[in-house]
Amino acid sequence: xxxxxxxxxxxxxxxxxxxxxxxxxxxxxxxxxxxxxxxxxxxxxxxxxxxxxxxxxxxxxxxxxxxxxxxxxxxxxxxxxxxxxxxxxxxxxxxxxxxxxxxxxxxxxxxxxxxxxxxxxxxxxxxxxxxxxxxxxxxxxxxxxxxxxxxxxxxxxxxxxxxxxxxxxxxxxxxxxxxxxxxxxxxxxxxxxxxxxxxxxxxxxxxxxxxxxxxxxxxxxxxxxxxxxxxxxxxxxxxxxxxxxxxxxxxxxxxxxxxxxxxxxxxxxxxxxxxxxxxxxxxxxxxxxxxxxxxxxxxxxxxxxxxxxxxxxxxxxxxxxxxxxxxxxxxxxxxxxxxxxxxxxxxxxxxxxxxxxxxxxxxxxxxxxxxxxxxxxxxxxxxxxxxxxxxxxxxxxxxxxxxxxxxxxxxxxxxxxxxxxxxxxxxxxxxxxxxxxxxxxxxxxxxxxxxxxxxxxxxxxxxxxxxxxxxxxxxxxxxxxxxxxxxxxxxxxxxxxxxxxxxxxxxxxxxxxxxxxxxxxxx
Length: 523
Prior knowledge:
Layout: H1 20-34, E1 42-43, E2 46-48, E3 59-60, H2 62-72, H3 115-123, E4 129-132, E5 140-143, H4 149-160, H5 173-186, H6 191-204, H7 217-224, E6 232-235, E7 264-270, E8 273-276, E9 279-282, H8 286-294, H9 296-299, H10 322-330, H11 332-335, E10 341-347, E11 363-369, H12 374-377, E12 383-389, H13 399-402, H14 404-415, E13 418-422, E14 427-431, E15 433-439, H15 442-449, E16 469-470, E17 477-478, H16 516-522
Helix pairs in contact: 1-2, 3-4, 5-7
């Protein structure tokens, strides 16, 4: 089916009319897409619409897809129809080249119709080693997994083992366990309730089939732990002034070196372990970023930003903004690989127990991935919770102390990167990441940046050149009529003497924008 796909992006001729090759090509695409029997690609006479608006995120019928493609054309870079059943070229089998079958390494299948088995493959691609066999073929092959091989093949076996003899195809042990654990989360089931339902299920099964499923919640979690991404806990001083991190993580440090506050609760010991008075929860982002490239459904979208700048004159994604382009010009080595990740940091405080209870301020810190298209980057699964800063008090200006594990990880991703598997191109590469900006409200801006957001000098742009003033009666700070200086010199509002400050004409230029080096010197 793979051939010249130039017609996909040659929709209109010089006269603005649809070309014949585009019309024929769209029909051939629709015939191919709707001929797929796999419900992952065609379900209930609907397929994913690959137009530049839907971008394979919406399911539509044939008439609607044809209308969208005719009106908006195909999404950029969709040469291989991966979301519609087409697969990239796979390497030739070694036995066709006359090699011994015993020398054939483990080969990952490109097409995996079973979503549960696909989940296992996506979660374990970092255990595969990629190389090129120059003598045999120019296409990529995979060497046998070296690390964590036993756990990987145990998962594969669970993904292939039927739940019981005679069950429907696809009803495997791993699928059953994943659905059962998902039900516990959705309906807030207790562990005792979950164990009782599991006990009843095992009782009704045949004796020879009972050992196929876990015995209790602990065994089920142990089976699924291969898919987990992990977390870390660090002790914190109750005054948020010190983090027991790095060399201070050792339990020999029992008091805050700044204020002398005890690290542990006095007289509280659980299982011979001291209980810290306050804890910081940290969820590393590197495994999550690697999973985006290792998952076949998201890997192709991680380079979407490469061709999105010219889609529209309006900025519909940060990749089309000047800040993104300036970053690419400043760091061309980073921008040379579109798979490198652009991140944003978001944080704000909230009261988890409502306003009627005792005051309690909890500060989560989120990391957002901006490589993905707009329809995906704002979805909950693309926003990673990285830190949970517990209350009851707000961390205030000490939030930078809490951010230290995340900053160290971001520095490692920026300077050194991490080896990651790209399931879209079927190769390993060194993934780097850059924190492009932070997203907060104005008080949060002061906490994260260190700039005081109170008083007459609270504007981070005007600084000492601020035109703010005290109200004569209440003595509060007012920023009235401070913004006309940012208008173009010929703007009529600058000469308006009645709607703003009475009798005042604004002739001043805006303050000079500071560079990053200037800000660093001020700090």
